[in-house]
Amino acid sequence: MTTPKQIRPFHTVLVANRGEIALRILRTVRRMGYGTVAVYSEADRESPHVHAADRAVLIGGAAPRESYLNIASIIEAAHRAGADAVHPGYGFLAENEDFADAVDAAGLVFIGPSGEAIRAMGNKAQAKRLVMAAEMPCIPGYQGEDQSDAAFVHAAADIGFPVMVKAAAGGGGRGMRLVNEPAALPQALASARSEAEVAFGSGELILERAVIAPRHVEIQVLADSHGHVIHLGERDCSVQRRHQKVIEEAPSPAVDADLRARMGEAAVKSAKAIGYIGAGTMEFLLDRDGRFYFMEMNTRLQVEHAVTEAITGLDLVEWQLRVAAGEPLTIQQSDVRLDGHAIEVRLTAEDVPAGFLPQTGPVLRWRPPVDGHDVRVDHGLLEGGAVSPHYDSMIAKLVAHGPTRDEARRKLLRAMEHCVLLGLPSNQGFLADCLANAVFANGNEVHTGFVQAQFGAAINERATPGTRTIALAAFGALAAEMRDSALRIAGSALGQQPARLVLAQGTARWEVRLLAQASQWQATVRRLDKEEAVHAFALRGAEWSNTDRTAFSVECDGMVERSVLALQADAVHLFHAGRAWTFERVSERKSRVAEGGGGAVTAPLTGRIVDVAVREGDTVQAGQRLVVLEAMKMEHTLTAPIAGVVVEVCVQAGGQSSKGALLLRIEEAKA
Questions:
Q1: Contact criterion met (CB below 8 Å) for 339 and 313
Q2: What is the pLDDT of residue 87?
Q3: Facing residues of 509 across strands?
Q4: In sequence order, which ranges of 274-358 are alpha helices (DSSP H)?
Q5: What is the predicted pLDDT for the residue at 587?
Q6: Which of 184, 420, 449, 497 is the most exposed place for a label (fewest CB within 10 A)?
């Protein structure tokens, strides 16, 4: 039996989400005069979204299934706090039909589409069948009920390689695999099913013909409960890694007025066909010849909705609220005007050279670019807080708007070069490199393979800091340990003898010596692990920018340099010249040889062990699959660093492992 959708006025909204998502929704809810309720897990007691609402309710433990995915707990929280409407945000339960139905059944207003509409479009196979009936162009593929490997092998042969394997029940790149040849299909099916089960609770898959070098373009639709549906133009989401978006823009450089009208008409027609209500997104692949193909519909607000807001002047959350209260759209299609250009980047906690591996850890410094940068920053970070292993790795989004695409790009690039996050790896430098890239700046040749095409294997190489950066890191570390409390950093505090510090990054090691002179310091940087020229710098006029000694400026060889600093017992973190750097502080007696040698395989982050593919005594080859770890909503396959024999296995499937823990050890094969 279908649960009737509640559409009526309300007075208090509970936001069933966390972090920057909850904060963004709460901002509009509060502006429109509604009461606000936040929910939080045990891990989020001090999260900014908890303090941003009128009331906040604890809904369970840190694990999502105990809190943000706990439907009964969220419904109970709404009743306890006196909320009569629920906004799901854009994550967790936002596209869960059972949640929408449960909210309606509890007599609350669900600020989103009906459970029936979510159910209809939440499964890619069913969604394709529905929109094809509405004459929507779709990619040739297989979305049959027979989920056996044999059925997929037969279908792939008919479709032709390469093919895309996709999770029928979800998106975001999870459960997605590109398969170039028949022999690789069985393993791709197995790994996609496993990841889909973890992420979406369903291992159902579909196949699609792979469209080579397409653009990812989506249409924003808005529908009320009176039968009116409009579109708000398109967004281009082609810059991706691991099939997940990292840069989005509106409008698309590849879409003209005619194509926009045709894509918009197809999106509106399909939304009407399923009786859609609220904000939603039709996602398409656009090939080089201007043909577009439906991929899926996201029955929620998108992370990238801010670029549409920037160019239309509309607040999409406001319209979600109005539609949920039963108001008709007062905007006709002819009223929609696109003003200028907007670009958004997703700042995530991840190790880019390690394959964009999600990271957890302390937020030692967080200084988003606000003053003077003309950008919108949506975030939920607190300096002194942490990025948790329990939730997604995205921590902020930054949006720039300008009259032209290039002005928006320049604004965002400058903002990224002033976005300070220290304490754990992030993609901040990678995003800046993308925005500065000549192909991206031109815009015409960007496609979903942009990252690989432009950066290739270099994306896996760790950048080497310049000697200037190393000198400043050492200077900042030594200055922070001086007992002098004045903002001016006096040379006399270093003493008469040269101060010495050894910094390391990976296998690279540098010795820095600082000698205080009459009105300046002399800094020399010498590479220890290889023969390089010694670099010398004259430093003068150094001072702290604040009393807590987290930022300083110093004239280095006649040029004023500004840096942000964070110290740990064995590490120096520095933001300098638009990039974040982390150096190991090496003591004289500290061994540089890791326990277990080159055959030790450790957990790159805290997570659940999904599979252990080897046993003690097995012979393995370098690059062979060893362990599958699930963390931060993704599966991560760990491979053998060397060829040899497995001499120790410390974990088993179903167990937990903390970041840095030894998983297994390989003894190198004897020659």
A1: yes
A2: 98
A3: 504
A4: 305-312, 316-324
A5: 78
A6: 497
Token code pair at residue 483 = 């007992």
pLDDT at 593: 37
What whole-number distance in Å separates Cα of residue 410 and Cα of residue 87?
A: 34
CB-neighbour burial class of residue 36 (10 A; exposed 0-12, middle 13-18, buried 19+): buried
pLDDT at 237: 97
d(CA 628, CA 484): 51
Q: Which residues of the chain have pLDDT under 50?
A: 589-596
pLDDT (0 to 100) of residue 597: 52
The separation between the first and the last C-alpha atoms of the chain, rounded to the nearest angstrom, is 69
The whole-angstrom separation of Cα 345 and Cα 354 is 20
For residue 560, which of 576, 572, 546, 547 has the smallest C-alpha distance? Answer: 576
In order of their start, the domains of the chain are 12-111 (3.40.50.20), 140-209 (3.30.1490.20), 215-460 (3.30.470.20), 467-586 (3.30.700), 597-668 (2.40.50.100)
- Residue in this structure with the two tokens 């570390």, named with its chain if needed: 477
For strand 386-387 and strand 215-223, is the pairing parallel, antiparallel, or unpaired?
Answer: unpaired
CA distance 478 to 501: 8
Single-letter amino acid code for the residue at 353: P
Q: What is the pLDDT of residue 590?
A: 46
* Euclidean distance between CA atoms 605 and 657, whole angstroms: 8
Give CA angle at 373 (371, 376), nearest 5°: 90
